[in-house]
Amino acid sequence: MAAGVAALGIIPPTRESLGPAQVAVQAQATGGRTVVIVPPLGTVSAATHAAPLELEMTFARVDFEELGPLATTAAGRADLLAQMEEDLVDVIRASTLRLLLGAGLVGAVAAALVWHRRWGQIALAAAGGMVGVAALMGATAVTFDDDAFEQPRYSGTLARAPIVIETLRETPSVLDDIRSRYETATRRLSDLLVLAARPDTDPRSETTSILHVSDIHANPLGLEIADELVRNFEVDAVLDTGDLASSTIDTGSLTSLAEPIDRRMTQLITRLDVPYYFVPGNHDSPRLIDTLGGAQNVTIFDEQVETISGIEVLGWADPTFTTDSSVTIEEKDEERLELADEVAAEVAAQAPDVLAVHDDNLAAESYGTVPVVIAGHAHERDLRREEGTLVLTVGSTGATGLKSLTLEADKSYEAEILYFRDSEVVAVDYVTFHGSSDFVVERTTFEESELEEAEEAGEA
């Protein structure tokens, strides 16, 4: 049984027709995700079930001549859905049978290696392999969440990332008395397949989008990545929660070396096609802030509220910048916590939609009184709720800057896009760059599910 389950990954994929495409289906005993690979779009996955079984479906071949007419008309889309829904049943049956037979064969071979030609033991082991895989697949089916692709993970061509993940959200995924799981799955798959033939769909849907970056630390690549995200995700503004400066030359006599870097970073920011809002961090000197404040598209937060495309944001500069290297991290944390009451008082007076700080210690007394807090400083992603407040901490957009060349070379470039509707955050796309090309986009949503909305409509 153990051998059959462990060897799932070596069982050859099942190849079947799914509408105008041929798909290859495989499984392996790891994770709890469903992975769909659609060349040339990329890979989309989601944590769909609790069982330790990863399901992978690859569109190995797509007949674009057949797909074209189906993708461009309403009647064609209906035919595509019906065709794919019918074919999906055959795909699942065939792949299930192959996995069971493969697991049985592996179990039999494992038993033969132990008991040689004791056929009763071999037959029992073959049955055991099949039972183990059947139990794993049964647990997958029982725990499968049809709405998991509301929060997908995407890797592929950056320009298509917002198109792919928004398409997955546009299709209602709620099962009702009429819609089956097969229909839900085929709607997802057909939308991805249509994108392969028609990739220029506008992904925006009546939202305001803000790119959140932080801790660039004088790394020009961080601003180049920000520029790519501004253009590909069509954001309305950039909100930087501080530490634009290098953390290695901001103390003592070394601060004099930073002036040319400050000017260069400011030049790169002026090239962005959207407004740039800046919350100074603990490494950002008064000279950098003055230099950056002279840029036409830059607004420096200094304990005031700014309206960003209809979103009221209170930005509070970090109070702990110093050229004295003897000041400890603990002393800086204590200073922030002491100021947290003053920040909370301003939050209560201004009632902003978002509180933007460099270190979330400054927001410690504001939880429960502001809908959203965004921060950086930690160089690690964090998403949590504190007393009802959504706290979003982004990793280092500059991969910790100069430190990426020394102690922290394994750090990724990270940023996030916040989507607002009616001044509320409805989704976040978290983007992680490994090096300067490979990336992953993860969507997290905060809206009520379509099921809850449907229930409310039914009650009304």
Major β-sheet, in short? 13 strands, mixed
Q: Extract low-pLDDT stretches.
A: 172-178, 449-460
Total of DSSP H or I helical runs spanning 4+ residues? 11
Helix content: 25-40%
Main structural class: alpha/beta
| Approximate shape | elongated
Query: Distance N terminus to C terminus?
Result: 52 Å
The strand order across the widest sheet is 1-2-5-3-4-6-19-18-17-7-8-9-10
> Per DSSP, what share of the residues sits in E-state strands of 2 or more residues?
15-25%
Mean pLDDT: 84
Write down the Rg.
26 Å
Care to count the β-strands?
A: 19
Order of helices and strands: HEEEEEHHHEHHEHEHEHEEEHEEEEEEEH
Features:
460 residues; alpha/beta; 6-stranded mixed β-sheet; 19 strands; disordered C terminus
Question: Could you walk me through the main structural features you see in this protein, from its secondary elements to its overall organization?
Answer:
37% of the residues lie in helices and 24% in strands. It is built from 11 helices and 19 strands. Strands 1-2-5-3-4-6-19-18-17-7-8-9-10 form a 13-stranded mixed β-sheet, with helices on one face. A 6-stranded mixed β-sheet has the order 11-12-13-14-16-15, with helices on one face. Helix 2 (64-71) crosses helix 3 (74-115) and helix 8 packs parallel to helix 9 (286-293). The two termini are 52 Å apart.
